[in-house]
């Protein structure tokens, strides 16, 4: 089989809007016909597992803490350890998928994630649980970009690409809410351990099906690893995520400022190293192309704002309205349904109107939902005060996810599809860490500053909490609205680029 040799370096010059390179059939060895829809099913199952894992574990934490005797600090590290490993190693995981083979990386990531889940589910001490969560993050950093890269090379162009990314986007957006339901059910009727062990049967199905259905694809040409870049970006992203986590205790604290500052410096050095490398970990032209730059910024802001839509909404349902975990999870299902419905509609609209209108309107609709939630009160009701805002948020997010995922990987050379997929995941991961820290700080500050009308009222403490939640919703809405001008300025992809009628 003839091979294609890529030039050792890529031009950082911005590509013209809509001028996307064609896929090389030598590298794009994906399945065709009906088989590729089964590949999509496997990828969707894997994505669901990774997304569910975050919220399932959050629901299980109180029971795990009581069972294993975790301290409050250790409990937070069950979440932080996963985020650190996942965020720090994503770009390396994407390059391993490109060079080692996307199918091989995907299957290895699935097996490793399942084994780590077994260790966590059977843990008898906090050390074992924390180690298992960090190991899950390591394998998720390999699995997530490999899955998205496989999806990219399986559906390189055309209308089917939009449909595939609609499914992927709906799961990415709605899976977190499903995790709340499943976590509540498993914790109450089985054990918190099953919130981790449930990954095992899912992984077995995905590995068996994936080994038969997915066709191996890997990059050709220059496949040397950029080890200076690996170290700089891993430590830089890890420092940034850890700094944001520490910022929950105060943005002016020494650890928060120190680690965030270190992360920024190391990431700046990473960019300099990549600009001079003839085999970069992250070819800078991937992020420099204006459409993709807009998508990466949108991914960062969406990841940040979703924390305001899920974390504090969950707090309101469980703390203020006194919902049990199962009830709180079920209460979030309408948002999941709204995301999935709008994602399906967006996939049909995108080839007709292009991605830009969806990315411009979706954030406004989602922000309107969050602004509706800023009116919440202690004596509020779910049907009148929560559900409308939740539905608007879901409708808007569904309009964002499909074009965002599509544009972020549109026109990326298959040689770099794993790196581009990793960058999307890294943007969302960093955004989520930033959102957790930022909105927690905003909420706590507003709660502390709240002056009740009647300090002797038995609802005064809850009134203060609700004031904090509503401030977080307002700031999350602001972050979402920023996506609209970014999309209008940067995104130039047309309906032809996403499989529209005039596409070749």
Automatic annotation (TrEMBL):
Keyword rRNA processing applies: no
Pfam families in UniProt: MFS_1
Subcellular location: Cell membrane
GO cellular component, one term: plasma membrane
Superkingdom classification of source: Bacteria
Domain Major facilitator superfamily (MFS) profile residues, every copy: 39-495
Its membrane topology: Multi-pass membrane protein
InterPro entries: EmrB-like, MFS, MFS_dom, MFS_trans_sf, Sugar_transporter_CS
Any GO molecular function: transmembrane transporter activity
Stretches of the chain forming a coiled coil according to its record: none
Transmembrane segments: 37-61, 73-93, 105-124, 130-153, 165-185, 191-215, 227-244, 256-273, 294-319, 325-345, 357-374, 386-409, 430-452, 472-491
Polar residues composition-biased segments: 1-12
Residue ranges, annotated region (Disordered): 1-20
Broad class of the protein's primary localization: membrane
Tagged with keyword Membrane: yes
Alphabetical UniProt keywords: Cell membrane, Membrane, Transmembrane, Transmembrane helix, Transport
PANTHER family in UniProt: BLR6921 PROTEIN, MAJOR FACILITATOR SUPERFAMILY MULTIDRUG TRANSPORTER MFSC
Protein name per the record: MFS transporter
């Amino acid at each position: 089989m003839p091979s294609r040799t890529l030039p050792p370096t890529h031009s950082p010059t911005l590509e013209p809007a809509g001028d996307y390179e064609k896929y090389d059939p030598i590298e794009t060895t994906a399945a065709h016909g009906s088989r590729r829809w089964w590949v999509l099913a496997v990828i969707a199952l894997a994505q669901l597992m990774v997304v569910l894992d975050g919220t399932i574990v959050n629901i299980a934490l109180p029971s795990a803490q009581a069972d294993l005797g975790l301290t409050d600090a250790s409990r937070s590290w069950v979440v932080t350890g996963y985020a650190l490993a996942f965020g720090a190693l994503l770009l390396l995981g994407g390059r391993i998928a490109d060079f080692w083979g996307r199918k091989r990386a995907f299957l290895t990531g699935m097996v490793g994630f399942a084994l780590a889940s077994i260790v966590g589910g059977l843990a008898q001490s906090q050390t074992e649980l924390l180690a298992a969560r960090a190991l899950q993050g390591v394998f998720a950093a390999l699995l997530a970009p490999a899955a998205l890269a496989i999806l990219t090379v399986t559906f390189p162009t055309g209308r089917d690409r939009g449909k595939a990314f609609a499914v992927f986007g709906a799961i990415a957006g709605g899976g977190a809410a499903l995790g709340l339901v499943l976590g509540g059910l498993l914790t109450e009727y089985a054990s918190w351990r099953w919130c981790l062990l449930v990954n095992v049967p899912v992984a077995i199905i995905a590995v068996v099906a994936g080994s038969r259905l997915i066709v191996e694809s890997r990059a050709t040409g220059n496949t040397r690893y950029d080890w200076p870049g690996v170290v700089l970006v891993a430590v830089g992203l890890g420092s940034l995520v850890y700094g944001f986590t520490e910022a929950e205790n105060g943005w002016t604290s020494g650890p928060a400022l120190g680690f965030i500052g270190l992360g920024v410096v190391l990431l700046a050095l990473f960019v300099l190293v990549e600009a001079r490398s003839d085999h970069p970990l992250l070819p800078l032209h991937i992020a420099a192309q204006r459409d993709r730059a807009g998508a990466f910024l949108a991914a960062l802001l969406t990841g940040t704002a979703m924390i305001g839509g899920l974390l504090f909404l969950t707090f309101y349902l469980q703390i203020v309205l006194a919902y049990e975990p199962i009830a709180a999870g079920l209460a979030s299902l309408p948002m999941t349904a709204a995301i999935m419905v709008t994602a399906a509609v967006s996939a049909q609209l995108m080839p007709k109107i292009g991605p830009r209108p969806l990315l411009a309107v979706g954030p406004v609709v989602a922000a309107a939902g969050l602004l509706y939630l800023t009116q919440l009160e202690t004596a509020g009701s779910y049907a009148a005060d929560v559900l409308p805002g939740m539905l608007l948020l879901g409708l808007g997010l569904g309009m964002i996810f499909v074009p965002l995922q599509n544009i972020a990987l549109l026109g990326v050379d298959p040689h770099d599809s794993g790196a581009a997929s990793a960058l999307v995941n890294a943007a969302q991961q960093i955004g989520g860490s930033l959102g957790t820290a930022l909105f927690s700080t905003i909420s706590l500050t507003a709660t502390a500053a709240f002056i009740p009308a009647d300090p002797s009222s038995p609802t005064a403490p809850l009134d203060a909490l609700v004031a904090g939640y509503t401030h977080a919703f307002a700031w999350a809405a602001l972050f979402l609205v920023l996506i609209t001008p970014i999309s209008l300025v940067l995104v130039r992809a047309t309906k032809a680029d996403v499989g529209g009628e005039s596409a070749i």
